[in-house]
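Q: For a teaching handout, I want to show students what a protein-ligand complex looks like in token form. Below are the inputs, and the small molecule is histidyl-adenosine monophosphate. Please produce the holo structure.
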Amino acid sequence: MGIKYRLLRGMRDISGAEAEKISRVVESAKKTFRAFNYSELMLPTMEEAALFARAAGETSDVVAKQMYVFKDKGDRTVALRPEGTAGAARYYVESGAAANSPIVKIFYSGSMFRYERPQEGRYREFYQIGCEYFGNSDAACDAEIIHLASMILDEAGVREREIFINTLGCPACRRSYADAVKKYAASLSGELCEDCLRRIEKNPLRVLDCKTDAEKLSDFPRSQDALCPECLKHYSEVKKLLDAIGVKYTEDFRLVRGLDYYTRTVFEIKSRLLGAQDAVAAGGRYDGLVEELFGRPTPAAGFAVGVERMLMASAGQKEKYDGGFFVAVTSPAITSAASKLAAEMRAAGIRTEGPLASKSLKSQLGAADKMGFGQVVIIADEELAYGDVIIKNMGSGEQKKMKLSGLVGQLAEQNAKARDMYDMARHGAQAEQEKK
Ligand code: HAM
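A: Here is the structure, written as tokens, with histidyl-adenosine monophosphate included.
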């Protein structure tokens, strides 16, 4: 029989070790968000399509080319979320969260959808963890989110990374800067690619991220030359605070971001371990968005991490050791003793598989080996009569007897010790690597 149903292009099944690693890095990121006093917001996957168009901008690629838009059965035009910021800002306005607190800090995680040309690190459904900070216009808020993004990557083991920052200025500065870039690009229009020619009219700042024309546009005006004193002061404070916290960054005067809501600080974190799609995390300030969505004028900033890219950039980092035991039986008649033991081991947090009592002992051991269990607890008729079990080390083949009473506590201890030894070895190797 042939395979009839296959994955849609750009979609992925994430299984086994990768799925576990994703859960683990997302859990660890959530802890870090909580340490910075963000609370979780579970956003819907689908919103009115118009929300994204208004937030990210009709001319942004995300809205103009990449949105999954369709009519639902009630004839509403809806979209699968291409990003989390628009939904979070909609929530902020709709829930009236501002009435309860001067600042509102939320984080979210989940799938985003963009109809892009799939390639390594670029999928049509991908996972983001992100945060949004509403109600603070201080430079300290910008520095906080950049520091937070950097910490999350650090904890996920992304060591090879660089933070790039730039400023686009307040809406008035951004407009005059866009005009300056438009004038400059128009003066070179005879030499530019078609995409750039279209952008000059519709979204001139995006001309600056064109890879094809980068060299021709090398003399481009810098945003900092178009900023008002307030915006300049804000930007230099952000840099000063990052220096004070010890977050290293590089200024990238071409960095403009593909979503139109950004004002003032923008940033991207890139890893050279990734290919063409090298941005692991990105974000910035967006002081005009809440008002654009018919809320009260509210300063805001945030970022999102691409989880798949974060894992790719942490490749080479070993998995946390997960030990565990397989429980096997020599005959089906003693399954209940094995099931009871397995239940107690699981309750103690030990990863446990078995019993597969309808199989012979040989095939149970074969299954344990295939599933990567280094140790098997064998419940055998004879030993059980004396209150004993056999522990078999699958690597060396060595077997030893242990008393059933008190066994779970001993196994839990043994498992934890093995994990500590593994972690020590891993950190030692990492420290060595970092020294090099
Ligand atoms: P973004 O730059 O569009 O920003 O996406 C953030 C991150 O999501 C990227 O740096 C990348 O790691 C990942 N990503 C984006 N597209 C894909 C894809 N097709 N496949 C795999 N990973 C992808 C935003 O989404 C903004 N909402 C960030 C933000 C939050 N700004 C303010 N608050």
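A: Two things your students might notice: The chain has two domains: 16-170+228-313, 325-428. The domain at 325-428 is CATH 3.40.50.800 (Rossmann fold).
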